[in-house]
Amino acid sequence: MTEVRVPTLGESVTEATVATWFKKPGDAVAVDEMLCELETDKVTVEVPAPAAGTLAEIIAAEGETVGVDALLAVISEGAAAAAPAPKQETGAQAAPQSNEVKMTDVMVPTLGESVAEATVSTWFKKVGDTVAQDEMLCELETDKVSVEVPAPCAGVLTEIVAPEGTTVDASAKLAVIAEGASAGAAAPAAAAAPAAAAPAASGAKDVENAPSANKLMAEKGIDPASVQGSGKDGRIMKEDVMAAAAKPAVSIAPAPAAAPRGPVNADDAAREERVKMTRLRATIARRLKDAQNTAAMLTTYNEVDMTEVMALRNTYKDAFEKKHGVRMGFMSFFTKACCHALKEVPEVNAEIDGGDIVYKHYVHMGVAAGTPTGLVVPVIRDADQMSFADIEKAIAEKGKRARDGKLSMAEMQGGTFTISNGGVYGSLMSSPILNPPQSGILGMHKIQDRPMVINGEIKIRPMMYLALSYDHRIVDGKGAVTFLVRVKEALEDPRRLLMDL
Questions:
Q1: Per its database record, what is this protein's job (predicted)?
Q2: Between 388-403 and 307-324, two packed helices, what is the crossing angle to 10 degrees?
Q3: Nearest to 476 by CA among 373, 350, 375
Q4: Catalytic residue selected from 471, 476, 493, 500
């Protein structure tokens, strides 16, 4: 007789609840075959068979609370040889023994410290497809970026756990791959996957949830259908209920304060297309509205004569590109000019934290970039310490990554000030919205020839309107105007940047 006891649960864990028995008395068991599942306050623990034989007796039934090293069951080793043998005669039992196929879970990759969930936007493979290691399986969409999920191994995709449109947390399982299998070998498993998923889709769930999970759902009034189970066969565990209770009621919210639609006649409705708002677009809507609701936002304007910058750029652009391998644009001039102005007006580079004002003695410049899926703001860290060439290289590289959806969360966090260039789309003037918790954002616009009075004479000059939106709670009008004037001065005489004037 071999005793099955509670394994070590952790230094601070002294007891657990028997959640599920996967064997019953009289069943044959193999060494390391899972017998039962224990549930602690934080994790689920599987208990394997310490020896082969027959499960003679279950001491601790489901729902019982047991301490560390408590006796769970007894295995009779004498019947081990006889019990498994008949099971080898059936094709269903023999196949896994002969194929030696290892099943590998595809998990959600690291999303970032502040990202708790994502939505499965696209599957590029279907069940039964052969996949190569590192081949892209699917794409996840978070609040800000798209994340590609590569195959952790080569084999056959046997199951898709999270179909398109599913919201998954940072530790969720997405799919299962039969590692090393060929398409033919994994076909039975692949075919079985849709069949296994059918009861869940129809709501006919025959898996008993953990007792503590049922109790917690009853206490909090949570519908079991709204909880995603992480236990065996989708069994809902206590931690699943706690995670569901911590989530907001709606994971993807519509644009804030959106008024309901009025009545639409049938002819118009037939010519409309309704598309669910993406997580990125919903986040943009929410953050922009939050900025308007939270900050005392005000915008001040000025205009800049771009003659000197354009002349300098035309003179040195070929030599600049030849030496540095990147084109000289206008953004490096504006970035340098802003960094220069922020030194004189530091409150524009600050933020409010509760009852404090946090002044930043560095500039992490956010550069707004339009992408096919929405606006993102990659951050150029320590832009005040960079050369023109370094800034141009960083902007080009991050702009390309933004358009390709390759930006990580870390690359869009920590900005202290933002520049938005609506001029690339032809905008003549606009009022940019703050990027919280920042206190300032500069809006660039289209360069347009206009008649200007220069030394008493009317001349045609390439002019650009500038707009600074700022948080009036910590930036006074004098500071905002001074900032714009310093930017204007630096651009109209770029030599001031070199002389730090």
A1: E2 component of the 2-oxoglutarate dehydrogenase (OGDH) complex which catalyzes the second step in the conversion of 2-oxoglutarate to succinyl-CoA and CO(2).
A2: 80
A3: 350
A4: 476
CB atoms near residue 285 (< 10 Å): 18
Choosing from 169, 290, 472, 493, the catalytic residue is 472
Q: Which residues of 194-230 are buried (b: 16+ CB within 10 A; e: fewer)?
A: eeebeeeeeeebeeebbbbbbebbeeeebebeebbbb
- Does residue 117 sit in helix, strand or coil? strand
d(CA 148, CA 96): 31
Strand 71-76 to 53-58 pairing = antiparallel
Domains of the chain by range and CATH?
A: 1-87 (2.40.50.100), 211-246 (4.10.320.10), 295-499 (3.30.559.10)
Contacts of 249 (CB under 8 A, 6+ apart): none
Instruction: Quote the crossing angle between the two packed helices 477-492 and 307-324, to the nearest 10°.
Output: 70
Active site residue 472: yes
Percentage of the chain exceeding pLDDT 90:
30
Q: What pLDDT band is residue 476 in, cutting at 50, 70 and 90? A: very high
pLDDT band at 56 (very low <50, low <70, confident <90, very high): confident
The 8-class DSSP code of residue 208 comes to: P
| 82-98 core/surface letters (b: 16 or more CB in 10 A; e: else) | ebbeeeeeeeeeeeeee
- In the block, tokens 């998923």 appear at 197
How far CA 157 is from CA of 104, 120, 179, 227, in Å, comes to 10, 16, 9, 25
Contact partners, residue 387, CB within 8 Å, separation at least 6: none
pTM here is 0.52
Q: Give the tens place of pLDDT for each residue, 160-180.
A: 998 888 888 888 889 999 887
State the DSSP code for 277: P
User: To the nearest whole percent, how much of the chain has pLDDT over 70?
Assistant: 79
What is the three-class DSSP state of 314? helix
Average the pLDDT over 215-228 and give the result. 74
When the pLDDT of each residue in the chain is averaged and rounded to a whole number, the result is 80
pLDDT band at 192 (very low <50, low <70, confident <90, very high): very low
Backbone angles phi, psi at 130, to 5 degrees: -80, 135
142 alpha carbon, distance to own chain's centre: 3
Is 476 among the catalytic positions? yes
